Amino acid sequence: MSGAALGIEIVVVFFLALFLLHRYGDFKKQQRMVLFGTLLAWYLCFLIVFILPLDVSTHKTVIFHVCEHILCSYFQSTQHVCYKPWSYIPDGIMPVFWRVVYWTSQCLTWLLLPFMQSYARSGGFSITGKIKTALIENAIYYGTYLFIFGSLLIYVAVHPQWRLSWYELQTIGITAANTWGLFLLVLLLGYGLVEIPRSYWEVSRQGHLLIKTYFKAAKLMTEKADSEENLEDVMEEVRKINESIKYNHPLRKNVDTILRKCPVEYQEKMGRNMDDYEDFDDKHNTYPTERSLSKLHKQVIYAVQRHNRTRVQWQILLEQAFHLEDVAKNETSTSRQFIHSFAPPEPVGWFRRYIYTPTIEWYWECLLKQWFYRILSVVLALFSVAVVWSECTFFSTRPVLSLFAVFIQLAERDYNYLYIEMACFITIFFLCTCVYSTVFRIRVFNYYYLASHHQTDAYSLQFSGMLFCRLTPPLCLNFLGLIHMDSAISHQEKEQTAYTSIMGSMRVLSFIANGFYIYYPMLIVILCIATYFSLGTRCLNLLGFQQFMGDEMTSDLIDEGRELLRRERRKRQRIEDGESRRREWRERYAQRDEIAARNRTSMSEMKETNYGETLNSNTNRQAKYTRGSSQTGRDSIELLQDAETLDFNAETLTDDPLQSEPGRHAGGRYLSMSSSRSRIFDDV
């Protein structure tokens, strides 16, 4: 059962990482190396978070072994049964697992991902050129690491009293990486502990959320116009280079590579300069170098990606704003049925047709949704308060002040391993949500920005993978400190978890274990207070970066966004009205065409009927005539048959004016029906 639990979690975590990568990345357009590196980084970090509760539960099986070897010996007279935990993992598996996962993630974050990041951003036209550019950009990065590591080795070699083994050097390296991660972790955690409950509370306030959406619309429209202008400038430069470099120039293939990265409408405008009568002359004209083309290639990739991202985000923001306006209108509806302003772009499925009906949608959007998010916000706020209290008191072991340590110790006494796993999972999941959601929300201008709906560039994806790999190990150590499972911090002689044994003993660097790891997390209180009063937002607003303040300072942008959405609503309404009119005309003309087709069919049937009746009457007259004359009639019939054969073979000789029309050939036995034929075919 334990192996099954571990295998199920490994598979579930993989699909979770794959789902998030599909949401933010683009499997069709982005490089396979970028996608694989990001997926591996996210997968390893999520794996550490999900498997750590199993490690804690397995560590608690020491109690199980005590129960098995001691209690069972004392209570042999009674039928005392010692149950093995359902998630018990045999010895020797978890240390190997943590060693592989941890060192793979560290190699990714400190070595491979920075190189892949520079490789993806490079504007080179060949693999060799991109590798060369990536090595040059990371020379300072890698050189700094080598300098620090070499200085450390020299310092240890000069002082013979410091006899550090390989294990202790390894612990120093892990401690340095975790210290850097903990420094950033406290900043992100202090922001997330306040912002996540507040964001859900703001969602419950429909009016406030609509005003904030107006503000976002005004800012996004400015960014969208800026991206379009930047794209126009870059495309103008590409057009000039396309006209200057002819078809037989050695750099023409590089220009073609740049053209393939341009939008389709610009490719159609510029086309390919294939003038075979005009050759390039390097003596009279100045041509761009390969380095300048690489720089232009990089600018084209960035401009096109930014333009596509702002365009998609604008459409998504419009849908959200229209939905919020519909909610505001339906709140006063007496019919208690949710009415949308615009028809959904996709056909209505069975879920909305039978389960999520307009009545259910009205009750959810106008009544239940607000209270649900308010209750969720209060629960998350209580979790945040518990985390802040535990971060400030987790170093106290007598008495135990950390709330999460109290919960785990209560479960220890009852040998409730399932409760231990659930408590550990909920706690670490909440901590990861606060930290990781901040990573997904923050934006460093246009260099780092995780945008959903497949709009995140390769640089941001790999940068997020680097952050995850650097934040997850110190986050797990901080969690183990909260529940008093890290002996280096709690100073208790306990059996270590497999994860703590891989991290090494922090007592090698006592000033970090006894000072920084204990007192630095207390700064989270100051960060939470600063986030609650929006001090960072106010500072950015004073520096000129427009932020939503909810007061008169942002009223101009709110009014601008409201006017933009009104304009877009009128535009979409005109488009829908035009489509509805065209649909009505098509239906009306389709009915007329059906009526006309029926009339033509009935007329043709009537003509065929009249033609058949006329033919039968002529035949009856001819039969009567043949019966009236015996031998003379037979001679006449023979003469008529001869004339019939002769007339059939002679296509042009005829005395009938109707038969002289082009394209008409009269049969011999219809010669006597010239008058009836003229009456039948008068309408043709």
Any overview of this molecule?
It is a multi-pass membrane protein. There is one protein chain. The chain is an all-alpha fold and 684 residues long. It is built from 24 helices and 2 strands. The protein has a two-stranded antiparallel ribbon with strand order 1-2. A hairpin with a 3-residue loop joins β1 and β2. α1 packs antiparallel against α2, α2 runs antiparallel to α4 and α9 packs parallel to α11. The protein starts with a helix and ends with a helix.
Number of helices: 24
Cα(first) to Cα(last) distance is 87 Å
Major sheet details: 2 strands, antiparallel
Shape: globular
Over all CA atoms, what is the radius of gyration? Answer: 41 Å
Strand order of the largest sheet: 1-2
Low-confidence stretches are 68-80, 619-684
Strand content: under 5%
Number of strands: 2
SS class: mainly alpha
Q: Give the proportion of residues in helices.
A: over 70%
Provide mean pLDDT, rounded: 78
InterPro entries: GPCR-associated_LMBR1, LMBR1-like_membr_prot
Subcellular location: Membrane
Protein name: LMBR1 domain containing 2b
Region (Disordered): 604-634, 654-684
Topology:
Blueprint: H1 2-24, H2 32-59, H3 61-74, H4 93-121, H5 127-137, H6 139-158, H7 166-203, H8 206-244, H9 252-261, H10 264-270, H11 290-330, H12 350-355, H13 358-393, H14 403-413, H15 417-441, E1 443-444, E2 448-449, H16 458-482, H17 487-490, H18 498-503, H19 510-519, H20 524-532, H21 535-542, H22 555-628, H23 631-649, H24 674-680
Antiparallel strand pairs: 1-2
